[in-house]
Write a structure and sequence with these properties.
134 residues
């Protein structure tokens, strides 16, 4: 093996670089939840409260975002549209859970859940009213 490495230095260097990159990409993907929690903790220490989202927006998302912003000073940031990877889903889940947990401790209730339910109920009432009127 050492003879091959000495004889094919460029090939050996390329193999090492590729293997290192593959290992790094795997470790980066596997650490998504840890990074999400870490980033949320860092943002919370700065006093920055936000929820992340991905995928096609639900029809009640504007009301959900408005509720978070107006009543609780929590921003919403869409980080991806339709195509998402498993690591991104894990990152967002860990980030959002950490922020929701901190807000629950600060306010004594789950305001993310409340805003989501309120926005959905409002949209559902309006949708039913439109459907009944047609």
């Amino acid at each position: 093996m050492w003879r091959f490495i000495r004889k094919h230095k460029i090939t050996s260097a390329i193999i090492v670089i590729v293997a290192t990159n593959v290992l790094f990409m795997w470790a980066w993907d596997e650490s998504a939840a840890i990074r999400g929690r870490f980033d949320a903790d860092r943002d919370l220490r700065k006093g920055k409260y936000q929820q992340l989202g991905y995928g096609l927006p639900s029809p009640w998302r504007p009301d959900y975002v408005r509720c978070l912003r107006q009543w609780y000073n929590v921003e919403f940031r869409a980080v991806a549209s339709c195509t998402v990877s498993r690591p991104l889903v894990e990152y967002v889940r860990a980030y959002d859970e950490a922020v929701a947990e901190a807000m629950k401790q600060k306010l004594g209730r789950d305001v993310v859940k409340e805003c989501r339910a309120e926005a959905y109920e409002k949209w559902h009432r309006e949708y039913k009213a439109k459907s009944a009127g047609q």
